[in-house]
Design brief:
By secondary structure, the protein is mostly helical. The chain has one domain. 57% of the residues lie in helices and 2% in strands. It has nine helices and two strands; from the N terminus they run ααααββααααα. It starts with a helix and ends with a helix. This is YkgJ family cysteine cluster protein. It comes from Pontiella agarivorans.
Length: 186
C-alpha cells in the first residue's frame, strides 16, 4: 500500500468506525446525551479545528455548520460521528463506564481499545500528534512511515480485543500485542 494521506484517511476511518461500533455496543446505554463530563461542544470543536479530523468530517459530508452549538456531535445515542472524533473521546472513561465492565481484564482491554486512536497519531509531525496539526499543508509533511506503523499496531491490537470480547480469553501473546499500545515512547 502506498503511504499517502488519502490511504491514511481511508484506513484510519475504517479502523475508527470499527472501534466506535464496539464502544457503542459496550457503552451506548450510558453515553447518550450525557454532558456530565467529557461530551461537550468545546471538545467536539477539535474535530473541526484539526486539519486531519476536518478531512475525516469532510469525507462524511460534514463540517462545522453541522455541529450543534450546545451538544457538539452528541445525540440520544452518543456521538453521531462515524469517525473523526478527537482521541480523548475514546481514551476517557468515567467511573460509570468502568463500572459497567465485569472485571479487570475487560477494563484493561477497554482501556487499550480507548488508546488505539491516540496511539496512531503520536509524533506524526515532530512531537505533534496527528490531530494537533492545524495547517492542512502540514498534513503532507507528516512522518508517514511512523503513522502507518502505528496504524498497523493499532489494527493488530484491535483484532486481539475483538477476539477477546468474543472468547473471553487473552493469552500472553495477545497481551504482548496490546502492550505495544500501552507502552508509549518518551
Amino acid at each position: 500500500m502506498m503511504l499517502t494521506l488519502e490511504n491514511l484517511i481511508n484506513e484510519y476511518a475504517a479502523l475508527e468506525t470499527e472501534i466506535r461500533k464496539i464502544m457503542t455496543h459496550l457503552f451506548s446505554g450510558t453515553c447518550g446525551l450525557c454532558t456530565a463530563c467529557c461530551c461537550r461542544a468545546d471538545i467536539c470543536e477539535e474535530a473541526v479545528e484539526s486539519a486531519f479530523l476536518a478531512r475525516l468530517l469532510k469525507k462524511q459530508g460534514l463540517g462545522e455548520k453541522d455541529m450543534d452549538d450546545r451538544f457538539g456531535w452528541l445525540d440520544l445515542s452518543g456521538c453521531s460521528l462515524d469517525y473523526g472524533r478527537p482521541p480523548v473521546c475514546y481514551a476517557y472513561y468515567c467511573d460509570e463506564l468502568l463500572a459497567r465492565l465485569p472485571d479487570d481484564t475487560h477494563r484493561y482491554s477497554a482501556g487499550v481499545l480507548g488508546k488505539l486512536i491516540l496511539h496512531i497519531g503520536q509524533q506524526a509531525l515532530g512531537n505533534r500528534h496527528l490531530v494537533e496539526i492545524m495547517d492542512p499543508d502540514d498534513l503532507e509533511k507528516i512522518n508517514y512511515d511512523r503513522v502507518f506503523q502505528r496504524l498497523e499496531e493499532a489494527q493488530a491490537a484491535f483484532e486481539v480485543i475483538k477476539a477477546y470480547l468474543a472468547s473471553g480469553m487473552l493469552n500472553k501473546a495477545d497481551r504482548e500485542v496490546l502492550a505495544v499500545i500501552t507502552t508509549e515512547e518518551p
